[in-house]
Each structure stands twice: as structure tokens, then as C-alpha cells.
């Protein structure tokens, strides 16, 4: 149940209306009203105003709901594909066949009154599709993460990403092949941190140890401990791993 759904159901019951009666007045299906009441449906702003007006809550509008309330009105399993579609619009141009398929999908979703709604726009301000990058920095998946005070783990939402560990070279630090490290950009070495670095045409997660103002130790641990000492100018520091999601 969400705040919006609770309001709808409470007022509907007070006026002794059935979901079917409300649906008929609003020009939607009964299942639509039930889904809104249960908090499992993304509701477009025009539909929200129409339903609220129909059941007598004229003084309420989408502006009365906080971002937390909006996030609570939907099932994230339904939202994720919609947010992925929004992210797709920002990617490079697609081949014509894929573009046609994507357009058809968008048209179908627009008919449901979802795309472009104020609810989805607001939801995108509290949640972010964070890409999962492989060893060659190509996106292979994504994860939905909350935005808190405009940041994700202290990083800009459009800059953070997951890096999929390509091997077991960090198993001694409890990071195995396929695990996902959330990376917050940082171009300077952080002593004691696990960071994503590039060196000698190699990109990997390594534990950092500052040796002095000019050199750094890149530590790994597969079957045994290993470390490479390099000058700072020989290493490109991409970002710091702030947390790891393991694969089971």
C-alpha cells in the first residue's frame, strides 16, 4: 500500500463506491484502479488528478506528495524497464531495425499513460540506473540505486558505475570474479582503499598503498600476495570502490 493508494481506497470506501464504479467514472479499467490502490501501478499525472477529482479529493494534487511518497507508489520491478528506456534515449543512435522496434515499444507504453508522467520524472530524481561495466568499460547490465541529497555514495549520479571483477586477482581482499564493485570517480590515490586503476595497458581493481609523494604500491592477492610499485604518473586512477556486491 502507498500513500496515494491509501487515499484512493479510503475515500472510495467512505463514499461506498466499488473499484468498478470509480473505474467507469474515470474511463479506466477496474484492474487499473485496483493496481493504483495496491501501489503496483505507475500512475500518470493527468490520471491522478482525474481520479482524485472523481472521488472528491479536489484539494489534492501530485504536488502534495513527497518524492518518498512517489517512490512508494510503485513496484520497482515495473519501474526499472521504464527507466532503462529513458536511459536508452541518451545512448548513441541505433540501427534502423532496432530503432523501429524501440519506437513501437515506446508507443505502446505511451498508450498506458506512463511515459513522460510527472510521477516517473519525480521517481527518476530519487532513483538512478547505474551501469555495470566490464573490463573494457562496456555496459553489460545496470542496477537501480537511490539518490540521496543529490549523490550516490558521495558521487555524482551520472558518474558512478559498477565494475565487474574480470578475475580472481583480488580474492585475498574478498572480491571474486563476477563481483560488482561500485566505483565513485577519484583521480587521486586513496591510501588503503581499493581502487579501479589503469597501468601498463591493464585495467583492474587494486588495493592502494602510498609509499611516498611520488610512488604507489598496487596490491593484489590471487593464490598469493603480489604488489607492483609504480610512479604516480604511470597509473591512471579511475575511481574508488565504495562497496561490493557479491555473486552467489
Notable characteristics:
single chain; 9-stranded mixed β-sheet; 26% strand; alpha+beta; Umud Fragment, subunit A; 434 Repressor (Amino-terminal Domain)
Alpha-beta content class: alpha+beta
- Unreliable runs: 59-63, 66-72, 109-118
How many strand units? 9
Portion in helices: 25-40%
Trace the largest sheet across and list its strands.
2-1-3-4-9-5-6-7-8
What's the SSE pattern?
HHHHHHHHEEEEEEEEE
Oligomeric category? single chain
Q: How many separate structural domains? A: 2
Q: What is the mean pLDDT?
A: 77
Please give the alpha-carbon distance between the first and last residues.
31 Å
* CATH class identity of the largest domain: Mainly Alpha
Query: What characterizes the major β-sheet?
Result: 9 strands, mixed
How many individual helices? Answer: 8
Task: Supply the CATH architecture of the largest domain.
Answer: Orthogonal Bundle
Structure description:
The protein has 248 residues and is an alpha+beta fold. It is built from eight helices and nine strands. It has two domains: 125 residues, 434 Repressor (Amino-terminal Domain) (Orthogonal Bundle), CATH 1.10.260; 85 residues, Umud Fragment, subunit A (Ribbon), CATH 2.10.109.10. A nine-stranded mixed beta sheet has the order 2-1-3-4-9-5-6-7-8. The radius of gyration is 24 Å and the shape is elongated. About 9% of the residues have low confidence.
